[in-house]
């Protein structure tokens, strides 16, 4: 084939009459995802992402550090540790030497300290070019030393994982690095410090079964392959072909083991937001603003007769009304910089419960909501706000994380009840609710729950063992739905409206009974299209709540919460 370009003495290129272009070696690459030819410099400038298909290339460790850290702030630690060959394996030292020379790395992980968006953190980045990113003694030692130093200096840790697993050439010594790194992270966690794990392709074997999956927050790059056993090993063991998308980041997200998918080009921004919401000294309680007028006070000042007030069944109807604001509407209207996290770390991610971290008047908080759909399709996706066990376990995981970092928790309750399907029973629905009641009673951080629509039975109570429980004016909270009550007591569900009248389920009734602390007036009927004033009322109340509870010691909080329920 005739060439279209040829090299001139000046090292430039001239065009020939026909044929294919001749290019300098390395100028063009072929994408291993889509097969398209791509300009190498475009890939480097674009965070090692294919400009044609958006596929991710594996990224060199130092390039990754350049991408996510503030320029000139990275300080490398523990470089050039003495070579380790615990098995005295012939040729292994030579292999290490050759790999060091080829990659410019001393090990499969680089560790050090840097600033990300102005926030100081300890960072570790694994590099798959170094014996497949496998973890040997030196790799485990570098990570352990970095975590120990982060604990001493009270700094967060961010680890970018990329590994084929334990290093076979170092045998059982490699295996022990799993325990060693986990033990160091346990001490870091007990010191109340943040650990973010970022899973990149591939993250496998002993790394997955140790530090990679121990993050307070676990993020994963799109389509990254993540798992314990390799796909070929699994297929050979079970004699079956694995489904498409198995052991990918998206698979782990769906099954509850990853908080969120992290797009590489947004990684610095996302990490900066997370670090900002965990910054030291962020627990200062904001000043309270004007108090919220309770419905009893407002009603007394309002003209009209008692007959004008909706009865209990009217309240039930309004609590279920289409177009009523959902948990996410209140989260978006009250809090700033909300980041949703997913999964229970056991089975799955329940879309009937949403939760994550946010900022309230500059203070980091955890927010959790039982979420009804805003249309029929979303209602089906969210199971009509009837949580499964994994929804309650996700909520508890986020609340325990809030306890660790001293973040107040705000819960929005809105469910007809916990999901009662066969699969929910198989996965322990009763145990999940009971565990929440048990743990929330002793949660060592301020906790406020607001019933915004339906508060159905134990499914609602699992998010409402709180320092205070508030209700919106047209919300209801009951042991069972009026239809269910009428069916059990009178064997006639058609008497639901009559049942509602005697069950004491309205906000006004429950305030008189001492079950709730505050009723929030809706100013008519709450509407999703115009809930700004209601959000402002709640925000003022939240400020008051933090002013009251934000300065209490953990012991004072838990004792007061215990006494609250002990009186009932």
Number of helices: 22
Give the overall pLDDT as a whole number.
Answer: 90
Structural class: alpha/beta
Number of separate strands: 20
What percent strand? 15-25%
Q: What does the overall shape look like?
A: elongated
Rg value: 28 Å
Low-confidence stretches: 1-24, 283-307
**End-to-end C-alpha gap:** 89 Å
Helix content: 25-40%
- What about the largest sheet? 8 strands, mixed
Secondary-structure map with pairings?
Layout lengths: L4 E3 L5 E3 L12 E3 L6 E3 H6 L15 H8 L6 E3 L14 H12 L5 E8 L2 E8 L10 H17 L3 E7 L7 H20 L4 E10 H4 L8 E4 L5 E2 L3 H8 L10 H6 L5 E2 L5 H10 L18 H7 L10 H8 L7 H8 L1 E6 L11 E8 L2 E8 L5 H6 L7 H17 L3 E7 L6 H5 L2 H12 L6 E10 H5 L6 E5 L3 E3 L3 H9 L5 H7 L4 H7 L4 E3 L11 H18 L4 H13 L2
Parallel strand pairs: 7-8, 8-9, 9-10, 9-11, 10-12, 15-16, 16-17, 17-18, 17-19, 18-20
Antiparallel strand pairs: 1-2, 3-4, 5-6, 6-7, 13-14, 14-15
What is the gist of this entry?
The chain is 38% helix and 19% strand.
Describe the 3D structure.
- The chain has 568 residues and is of the alpha/beta class.
- It is built from 22 helices and 20 strands.
- The strands form four sheets. Strands 5, 6, 7, 8, 9, 10, 11 and 12 form an eight-stranded mixed β-sheet that branches. Strands 13, 14, 15, 16, 17, 18, 19 and 20 form an eight-stranded mixed β-sheet that branches.
- β14 (353-360) and β15 form a beta hairpin.
- The chain is elongated and about 85 Å long.
- The termini are far apart.
- Residues 1-24 and 283-307 have low confidence and may be disordered.
